[in-house]
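One-letter codes give the sequence; the integers encode the fold. A sample entry reads:
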Amino acid sequence: MSQLGLAATASKALPLLPNRQRSPAGTTFPSSALPRPSNRRKSHTRSLRDGGNEVSDAKKHSQSVRQGLAGIIDIPSDAVSEVDISHGPKDPRGPTDSYQMNGIINETHNGRHASGSMVVEFCAALGGKTPIHSILVANNGMAATKFMRSVRTWANDTFGSEKAIHLIAMATPEDMRINAEHIRLADQFVEVPGGTNNNNYANVQLIVEIAERVGVSAVWPGWGHASENPELPDALTAKGIVFLGPPATSMNALGDKVGSALIAQAAGVPTLAWSGSHVEVPLECCLDAIPEEMYRKACVTTTEEAVASCQVVGYPAMIKASWGGGGKGIRKVHNDDEVRALFKQVQGEVPGSPIFIMRLASQSRHLEVQLLCDQYGNVAALHSRDCSVQRRHQKIIEEGPVTVAPRETVKALEQAARRLAKAVGYVPANIGGPLPITKPLDPPDRPVAYIPENTCDPRAAIRGVDDSQGKWLGGMFDKDSFVETFEGWAKTVVTGRAKLGGIPVGVIAVETQTMMQLIPADPGQLDSHERSVPRAGQVWFPDSATKTAQALLDFNREGLPLFILANWRGFSGGQRDLFEGILQAGSAIVENLRTYNQPAFVYIPMAGELRGGAWVVIDSKINPDRIECYAERTAKGNVLEPQGLIEIKFRSEELQDCMGRLDPELINLKAKLQDAKHGNGSLPDIESLQKSIEARTKQLLPLYTQIAVRFAELHDTSLRMAAKGVIKKVVDWEESRSFFYKRLRRRISEDLLAKEIRRIIGDNFTHQSAMELINEWYLASQATTGSTAGWDDDDAFVAWKDSPENYKGYIQELRAQKVSQSLSDLADSSSDLQAFSQGLSTLLDKMDPSQRVKFVQEVKKVLG
């Protein structure tokens, strides 16, 4: 369920009447411990359930909110409050299986399972894949209460059932003692340790453990506590659980005060004068990783630097620690002497934190903008709030919407906030839209300087590495652009997002070293203990295969081109691995590659190899329209290794036959043996010859085995792969970056033009057919201009595509044929023909006067 749908109906409060609550241990709390709702609340609940007037009022209000949001983010108004269910792979638990798990007894009531099926049907109707039917609310107090009431109201408006979405609360002993409202509103709660929030609502490990144990579809952390910890979305995603919040990349980008101020400046968001005002960093550089030199320029490290910076920005000023919060690491200063006296205090309160100076805006208001974003680049500003009432730098009262500032000012604030939120995204602004390509800071044509020796280090191959002298040896992708995802999960596969010449791409690579997997102790088994299990590199295990499939799914949804640095020897085949779903995970890889809709490149890197079942799941024949396979000159690829190949195709018997044909001494001994057997040779002579033959065979066997292995190795090369057609071309390692940059630009250009053709003709026109048309247009255009560039010249094709004049006539002809066909089809149906005049009238009404006159003149020419 999208946060958009939840927030769109947050205006009505709908309390619930739970019959009972149970802790994880199964203890039943008496109903007297829970507050009794007033008669007014009971009446309100009944009216919502029975279809009273309040339901219609709520629906009217909900519709108005939906229409308002639709205008903000440019989506249909009737879809704004819908459940967005496209958040990862289909939940294998199904819509109702998670209601009874691990001894946690859930509340049941009439219509409970019917509501779950309604959510699933609703999901399917919208084309989603993961129905969110249960949510763990990892927060308490007002945040949890507001969220739960919003969900209840939305579920009632959408499904006619308040409990269509199952809500699970976390409850500390302190919450239970005061009969906290969020516990009463939940369908179920899980007791957690009390004390500071590090023991409960800010404990990432605890939240993930509860979410997995209870079997929820999603986790909502709200604000505060763990909501800004980037470890939480990564950990939940690794478990296949939806995180209702911003991705870790956005948290990292805006979590640091200095870094976020630099990003805001680069995105064109107004900022107060501060110590980094003079630092100019390109936005694309900020989003990847702010250069350390630029970051240092925005900070002050000594008292005298702080004094000089304050004199530039002007007094009064604030000395602030970048890592501070909650009033810590912040001091107001009015002159140089105060700076010298207080600078050390800021350093001491937040040890190790970078420090910066910012102008103090006296007599100002603290205004904030609430944003709602989705994974498709949509950003909605849900109005603003005034948080000026504070004590000790902590907000006490929040008023919304803002009334103290002119509407124009508030609107400008909201637009700037939306611009900043979009800037820290890493995916296209809309589904199927163009990639956010930036100017490359790392030359696309530079050679790959990192050279693998025995094995290929995946991270060094992707982002480069510093040598022993501190010199950076560049990898395939842009410097400092690689952001690894799922880092702590299934470490034998490396996944993440990078840029190639400024073009964002998804990357999957393979760890070659043996990694240790930590298996925690099972608290339900007394004799269980924590274990470390070795995981061999270059092998797909159930977790790493699932990680690969999930990365493919995510990259495809984000519209990112794909690069797979293939270096696998196959799948693990142990009984436990089969039980844990290694075959299902492999099938998911195949399916996600089959449905991949972006350019995809499979490249066997230097010192890499591709063996066994790994060939099956990433072969270009799975999706020939999208996948291209390449190999480095030293790469190896065959179903079996040479030693294994000769064990099957050149066994000992075949080797001995080969010796008998080629070795002169063995040929002579066998001839003498034949003469002795058919002549008058004595038995001792025959036995002596047989022993000589056996000795000679034994002497030659290692040599011939070595020759056979070498023969097999000659078939285990990239040149043989190209000759057999399993790869498209051999690409040298040093030139791979330049080659794939040109090839990627070519494929993106082809895709854009092919999509435009299919949009005109219709989806029934295949991608392959569109490519055949493009090929025909390109060659005809090149022949007309006298160019010698062929179809395989990537640079020439990109230059041709970047000049619309080369194919504008062909596109216009396609449109004319499409319209002509549609009008011709009208003659086949009398009812359609009768409606033609009405449709023509509507078309004329939509035209501006000049267009209308020109159109009428053209029609008159046709009619004679």
The domain at 458-632 is CATH 3.90.226.10 (2-enoyl-CoA Hydratase; Chain A, domain 1). The longest strand covers residues 379-391. The two ends are 58 Å apart (CA to CA). Residues 90 and 557 are 14 Å apart (CA to CA).
